[in-house]
Amino acid sequence: MSNIYKYRFRFNAKHNTSFEVENIHVHTFEVVCYVKQEELNYNLVENQIKEYLKQFQGSYLNEKMDEIPIIENIAMKFYKDINLLAKEFHLFRLELSDKPIQTYIISEEDF
Questions:
Q1: Category of 56 on φ-ψ map: left (φ > 0), alpha (ψ -120 to 50) or beta
Q2: Dihedral through CA 79, CA 55, CA 70, CA 33, nearest 10?
Q3: What pLDDT is attached to residue 19?
Q4: From 8's CA, which of 16, 27, 37, 104 has a CA 20 to 30 Å away?
Q5: Closest CA to 46 of 79, 6, 105, 3
Q6: H-helix or E-strand containing 56?
Q7: What is the pLDDT of residue 17?
Q8: CA separation for the pair 84, 80 (Å, rounded)
C-alpha cells in the first residue's frame, strides 16, 4: 500500500519573461508536491525536495533554466528534476504558484 503525502515549500526568486532587463521582477513561489511513498520517511522526502529547491532561493531563474521561466516551464522542470532525484518516493502531482489567485498544476497524467 502506498501512502500519499502533501509537502508545501516556498522560495523567493526573480525572473523575466520578456528578456528585457527592466521587466525583471520578484515572486514568492509556492511549490506543493503530492508524493506516494511505501515507507513512512517524512524527513527524507522533505529534505530531498527542500535541498533541490534551495538552489532557486534568491536566484534569477533566467540563469537557471534553458527555457523562458514562465510558470508552466518552471513547474515542468521541477516535476522532472524532483522525480529524477526521488528513489524512496514518487512525485505524482506538483502545483506551482507565483501569486495567490493562480496555480499551475502538472501531474503524471500529463506525460
A1: alpha
A2: 30
A3: 67
A4: 16
A5: 6
A6: none
A7: 87
A8: 6
Looking at residue 14, its pLDDT comes to 95
C-alpha cell at 47: 529534505
H helical segments located in the chain: 42-54, 71-85
Residues 63, 77: Cα–Cα separation, whole Å: 14
Contact 61, 13 (CB under 8 A): yes
* CA dist 31 → 18, 19, 58, 74, 98 (Å): 23, 24, 15, 10, 9
pLDDT at 101: 92
**Is residue 110 helix, strand or coil?**
helix
> Which residue in 16, 7, 99 sits closest to 52, CA to CA?
7
Q: In the chain, which residues have pLDDT < 70?
A: 1, 19-21
φ, ψ for residue 103, nearest 5 deg = -135, 135
Strand duo 3-15 + 90-99: pairing:
unpaired
